Structures are given as C-alpha cells and as structure tokens.
Predict the 3D structure of the following.
Amino acid sequence: MVATKSRYASPNHFDAIIIGAGIAGPALAYTLSTLPQTSENALRIALMDRSFAEPNRIVGELLQPGGMKALRELGMGDCVNNIDAIPCHGYAVLYQGNTVHIPYPDKEEGRSFHHGRFVQNLRAKARTGKGVECIEAVVSDFIESPDGRVLGVRATRKGEKEQSQVSEDFFADVTFVADGWSSKFRSKVLGASLREPRLKSHFIGFVLKDVTLPIPKHGTVALIPGTGPVLLYQIGKHETRMLVDAQGGLPKDIPAYVKGKIIPYLPEDLHDSISDSMVADRPKSMPNSFFPATKQGGKHHKSGAVLLGDAWNMRHPLTGGGMTVALSDVVILRQLLDSV
C-alpha cells in the first residue's frame, strides 16, 4: 500500500481513515504505519473516535492465546504490559460440585485485564506509528461518489461547543469501519446482504474483590441450571470479573435474581464477595448478540469501505473470541495490503 503525495491536497486528505478506536482500529492504524512500502514515504492514517477517554466496559477483558499471538505478530505485544494484566492458562468448568480442568494446549498463555487500560495502551501504540493522526470527532456519514463509492467521511470534531460546530469532510482512498457492535455504518456497507444481529442474552457484570478462583489464573465457567453460565476471571491482582449470562431478557430485580438463581450454584467462598459487590456498585449490563460475517466485496457492498471487528461479525462473548478474531483479521489485512 503505497502513499500518493497528490492525495494530500489538504490536511483532511488521508490514505486511510479508520472509524473506531477500540480494539481493531488502533491495531490496524499501527499496522498500516509499519507496512514495508511506507518506510520512506509514510502513509497518512486518520484514526477517528468520538472519545479517546478510557472506556469502561464489562467485556473485552480476556485475550485468548491466539489473540496474544496476533498481537506479537503485529509488533504490539507490549500492549499488555503495565496494566496489571493476569496470565490465563486455561479454564475450569464447574458443574454440580465438580471441577473440570481444561488447560490451554502446549502451555500457551492468554491475558486478562481491565478493558479500558488495554484499549488505552493500543491507542498509545497507534500514536507512535509514523503517519498516524488520532482525531476525536463524531463521524456522521460517508462521503460518496455519484456511483456510490465511499470517498471518506463527514465528521464533527469534539469541542466545548460541539453542537454549534460545523462538520468537516475527510477524504481517503479507503475507509475502514471498526465502530463496534452497535455500528451505524454496517448497514450502509453491506446493503441488501445485511443480516441483522440477533440478540441471544444479556451479560450482567460485577467486580469481586480479593477472591480466589477454584483454579487460579484460569477462566472459570459455572454451569447454572435453568439459565446461562457464569464466567469469572481475574482482571487485576485484587479484582475478579463475574459475568452472569441472563437469558430471556434482563431481570427486573437483578440482586434478587443473582441471590436466588446464581449464588447457590457457585463456590461458597465467593458468596460474601458477590453480595458485597451488589451493594457497593450498581451492576452493569450489555446485550450479547450473534452476527455471522458476510463476505465483503459483493455486488451489494459499497466499494471504498471495509468492515472490521464487531462491526463485521460477532459471537457470544462467553467464547472470549471477539478480540482474538479482530486482531487476527488485522494480521490478515496486513498480509493482503503488503503487496498493494
């Protein structure tokens, strides 16, 4: 992918625009900056997001060994450093009082951490990339040619008086859409081939303090009768995430639901910490959706735009595969763009 100097007619002309600075976006921005063809004439890459403040989410906290491998291949392995990340060696499955140990093969290792801290490290790494410009702005629409090709985006930079600000036009040879599970550009890119994401359940998230899991440094999956499983994993030295998979809609009374249907089936030494967590903090929740990938580049798709990450495909977060898929897709994109 070779930079074209004539494209830089104005400061708002780039070689690539990336919408979304979560997991996939910063990884792609940094990766584009390292393409061998750009060593002497760097690409101009715009990484855009409505906010570069640290996000606070209850998923995207456990990176599987495949995701760690992808990070290293992208030269971003250090992004798990200095965020109190915990090594993860596999899973423990709890069922009817029994514990089944499922280690990762070949002693491979994942990492679990606070999602926001990891994202901030990815963004910091992207900023070190030659030609990468981080732009805090709300992207409102595509800019298209008469034949429907995406030429760039229209966006409003964040400021004290954002409501009164005038939108700007940003142009690029290609626009990558990585704006997450609630993507507002997914339908525009996929067109008639779009299959709407299907809601499967909701996660209810808690943070437990100073607890010991049945097998330390392992994800714990507790199978609960009559509802979805419960997932637990450390996200710091003193903190453990608990995610309750509530099926059939969010319970109206979450504390009563957890006390009556969940706690009795978990190890007794976790009970007090779970109760304390419900008192200390309001539980967070998020929808779990299934959205299979659609092959891009078909007759219904807009040229000039590429979907990436959760904007393109989703699986249940219980699998812990979302970040691994996104980072692996960036690895593949790098290989494809290497020769362009």
